[in-house]
Amino acid sequence: MGYLKCIKITKEYEKASKALRSVSFKVPSEGIFALIGRNGAGKTTLVRILATQLLPTSGSANLAGMDVVKDAKDLRGMIACVPQEARAIGWLTPRQFILSYLLWRGMDYSEAKRKTEDATKMLGIDQHLDTANRLLSGGTKRKVLVASVIASGAKILFLDEPTTGLDPISRSDLWRILSKLKRTHFIFLTTHYLEEAERLADKIGILDEGKLLALGTLEELRATVKYPYIIKILSDRKMLKPREGTVVKGVDGYYQIATKEKDAYEISKELIKEGVKFSMNPLSLDDIFYYIAKKPIEAENYEKDESW
Amino acid sequence: MKKMNHGSQIFASILVNAVYAMINYPIVLISTLLAPFAFLIVISFVSHGALLPIAIGGALIMTMISAGTSLQGDLSHLKNDFKLQDMIVSSPTSARMYLIGMAISEIVYALPALLVLAILAGLYINTSILGYASIMAVMSIMFIFSISLGFFLSTLTSDVIQSWAFTGIISTILSALPPVYYPISYIPQQFQFIAYISPATYAAQIVQNATGYVTFSNSTLLIDWIVIIAVAAAMTVIAVKKSKWRED
Ligand SMILES: Nc1ncnc2c1ncn2[C@@H]1O[C@H](COP(=O)(O)OP(=O)(O)O)[C@@H](O)[C@H]1O
Ligand SMILES: [Mg+2]
Fold first, then answer.
1. Is A230 touching B (CB cutoff 8 A)?
2. What is the ipTM metric for this complex?
3. For residue A258, what is the enclosing H or E element?
4. What is the C-alpha separation between B125 and B103, in angstroms, rounded?
5. pLDDT tens digits, residue range A18-36?
6. How far is B91 from chain A (nearest CA, A)?
């Protein structure tokens, strides 16, 4: 398998607003690449450019050896996309929708019929094959779309926020399917559920305000953070100062010590001795995102907080 | 890479836009069947049957023109409410194959109405083989024109409100304005120029001439043919070249 390579991709919708600002990166086009970022970060814009739906204002991108603008015609034979707000056509059944999608892609009728059944079986929605899409639950509707792109046989899949708005069970259902799928496909996934990227992704990109702030495996991202361990003080305010690290007030209101692994263990030992309730964890992607996209704004306040 | 089956691609559009709609919602059949007859009936009654042949000719043209109007609505709906166009763009399907398939699907959709109108035409329009041939040619040209226009506009829309606005404008220009169900002489002389804004007027003159009810001079007819062919050709080029398939 080749690479996905973006070179200085910029997208301006109007003169004033830049949705993407010179985004450059290179990742192997295999497994799952998760692009994370808040609403409006530019995720959909990047997906639409790479999936040949939108032209960049400047810059270029290359996928599996093909330029997404110049070689779009050839590339389109290898890709399939579930757009962010896509819905399976309400007045069709999943069977009718998936079958039509495959026929549109130029598949023979008999093969399309077979692939429709195989894919829906794989996603566990075959019992709904002949129920109108509009009558299905949100999770099943989403799976109909995912089944369509899986059935297409395309090896490069773009899924723009595939699990947004799903209940936790449907979400983990979809995660299970995607982690199986990533052995044979390259999946470009966007999400604002950081847990999703943590669970599924081989590589993670952090996008904020149109800029790519970081890229790497979860471990690599963690390594970019100076203090990758977090001790959260859960009971009283009695605590110890780490030899090296910072104390911040987390978004949840608890005070946290961010420090290095060795310090974290030592502090923990002392906290146990003192009988203080606490938790200790390596940084989650949530924390890393917070750290990378926005410096912990509470840190400064703490230093001014005399009561400590 | 596997070869694409173009037959499949066209079939998909026919399935989604015509067959499944009719199977899943049989009421759709009744609505498409009724549409062209409303005016036909009114005009025939008001004229005590005198305008029946012209009105049948008019209904044949209007059926072809409304194919484009409804295609615009259908495709805008699929594009904006289901994001189908984005899914199709990111696939081997070309804009051209999508357009051809959708065009044929609109014919299939109109088939029941066309069948009834064809029988009426056979009964009430007395004309030569050449007359029937020119009616069919005009119908085909107007179909190509309206389908291209509808497809082009649908790719420009980003929501349903915009699509409704387009539908309103096209319907006014292509069906309300032109004297399709009655002769242009019914319009006061000083206002006739308004009718000539619409390509449907030129199409109607050829058909009305073929029905033998009104006669136009050869030079007028020549202009009529030139106008509808030119407009249809230009619209087809615009649809293929200027449709917003990949956005910029
Ligand atoms: N078609 C558009 N026209 C103008 N601005 C747009 C358009 N689409 C997106 N934007 C703007 O571009 C920015 C990035 O949007 P988007 O790519 O949808 O972000 P995300 O998918 O990460 O939520 C946002 O500020 C959004 O308002
Ligand atoms: Mg988005």
1. no
2. 0.91
3. strand A255-259
4. 27
5. 999 999 999 999 999 999 9
6. 5
